[in-house]
Predict the structure.
Amino acid sequence: MPRVKSFTQSMAWLHSWAGLILGWLLFAIFLTGTLTIFDKEINWWSQPELRDQQVTQQEAARAAWNWLAREHGDAEVWNISLPTERAPVMSVSIGDNRRSGGKVLDPHSEALVPVRESAGGNFLYHFHYTLHMPRTFGIWVVGLAAMAMLTALVTGIVIHKRIFKDFFTFRPVKGRRAWLDGHNACAVLMLPFHLMITYTGLVIFVMIYMPAAVDALYDGNREAMFREARPLAEKGAEPRQGNERRDGGRQGNERGPRMVEQAPAAEMLPLESFIGKAESVFGPGMVASMTISHPGRANAVVSLRPLLGSRIALTKGVEVRFDAVSGKLLQAPLEPRASALTQQVMTGLHFAQFGGYPMRWLYFLCSGVSCAMIATGLVLFAMKQRLRTAEVNRGHTFLRVVDVLNIAVVAGLVLGCIGMLWANRLLPVELAGRAGWEESLFFGIWGVSLLHAGWRQPGAAWREQLGVAALLCLGLPLLGFLTQDAGAMDTTRLSLALVAVLIGLMLAWTAWRVGRPAATNGVPHEPTQHLAGAG
Amino acid sequence: MIRRLRDNPAWQARLDIGLRVAAATIGGYFFTYACTAAMARLLPLARFDAVMVSSLLAFAVYTAVIVWVFAAASAWRAWLGIALALPLAIIGFWPGLFGSGA
Amino acid sequence: MLAAFTAGMTLAYTGMLALCLGLERHYRQIWRETPPVWLRRGLRVGGWMVLVMAFHACNLAWGAAMGAVGWFGLVSLTGFVLLLLLPYAPRLAVWLPVGGGLLWIGVLVTM
């Protein structure tokens, strides 16, 4: 290693090492993130008991109301999650915690539908930003990886000298040139996407990662900061609390224990009538769920929440509230101020809930290319390392570690993901802790992939693991037909099976290409005008 | 012993890399932390907006610092640059020095 | 929306194709002859103009803010498809916009 390196050499060194060390994590984050774009669709596929009942939200709300009034007439809070375009299923729950324990309700028969427990898309979503570690720790690790990604992107631009000249260049000949061209193509053409998705990913947790400004100006009190930002919202909430237990001293009427003195019984307006009112705020088809507190009482309040995605900005906790008896608007969402909106837009750009299915597909394909960029980068590092090791006859162990981890991370994770979908269909439906078993199988398959990679030669391991993954993907529609009645095959599930087949074909092609010995070994003597590997 | 380490080029290279990695990750974080605080203090915006804007820019600052640390002529010089965090922290956290303070 | 999206996709690809053919190397790759300077310049200017039209189509499909996001995505992805097609099927790469146009007409008719 020369003592004084040129700027480009330093940047190449930083690019390859930041890219390698955190590239393994980054691939896992990006692959699960890519799949998370279709999390609701994966969830839908994972629960073949669910059928699209083709009811309007109004009909669904009516059915939910009937059922809740019958079964839980005295409950303090009702929650109804309405059928939407992406998840045409309705679930109901009672009490504060509307996120967990929702029961699926058939809007026609007004009876509960037994649904299998499954990890599905939700697992991938949580894995994407916590890596299945304790939440805060996982978020920090993912943040570190994202910073490495940002660094690798910037240094990548610096070391890619012919960024415009080679803009459309791809020479799929044997050896490293093809991999380098592929890596550059994935990187350069998608550069806006890579930068956007990485930066906005960091912005989601900006107050966790970089609380400096809050510490300096608000003594670290984030709540005080956000309170200051919306003085209007506070005032808007005032009338709601006015007619309730002011003197009770407890804030937040949903949270308290049941009141000693209940408000008198009163006839509520039909719940379905509030959907149209909320749509005039959020836009048609944009209502996701509703919560009714003190149902059937004079102080009943209906809160309706929007789907994320009527606009780019991602706003959590937005809702519109109505008096359920008089139908009077109690609180409408307020437009945030410009700086807060900027953060919400950046977050929304990452969550990709806007723009309907065309936009969802764009995101899916773009992040698929991101995965390919990271994977080709990892392969390139191994190729360069192989040349160096052969040259100086040192570092064989390190090369082995790189090879094994590359295979286990790239091929192994793909195997784990598709394996989890198989587990969803093959595990007995009534198995206790079924979602947990699916997750265990995911990690189990990943572990087996690591062992296999350590046992076989790199070329063979790549070929075999990618081959098995390809078979599993190609066989997914078959499995679907074997294990479930044909009635569950709707557009969403069929599309998922079709995409699995397409991915399977791509994996099979890759297995065939990678398996050829010349492709993994690289060509020993080739012009080295490009700097993109280990410096 | 120390002299032998100092004269050994392989060890020097390793020391250089170790110092730079530390400067980029840990030093870079603290520099960014101080810089974000100072920026929030100095931006001529309402308090909330200043916090938001400087926080959103923090990751760009951090990336620039990492790149700079590895581009610097020597690891020691990189650490000297990181030491600029100190005056920035004073601007950011000395109450009453700039603006009305928290 | 789907019609505007299809139009945006086709225009984005066409624009990238024109920009690509405006580079001497890729023009030769397909037509096996050196392009005259006026043609190269024309292709580049035309390419950018078509990309501007694609931007307009994206705005029609998604509205202003989302349209810009969609435009970036479409330009990147169609450019990537073009890049993958060039070494394997260069003639197909050139004639693909015709298919895109037909698809757009199909969507217009059926919607």
Chain B is about 80% helix and 0% strand. The radius of gyration of chain B is 17 Å. Chains B and C do not touch (no CB pair under 8 Å). Residues 23 and 79 of chain B are 6 Å apart (CA to CA).
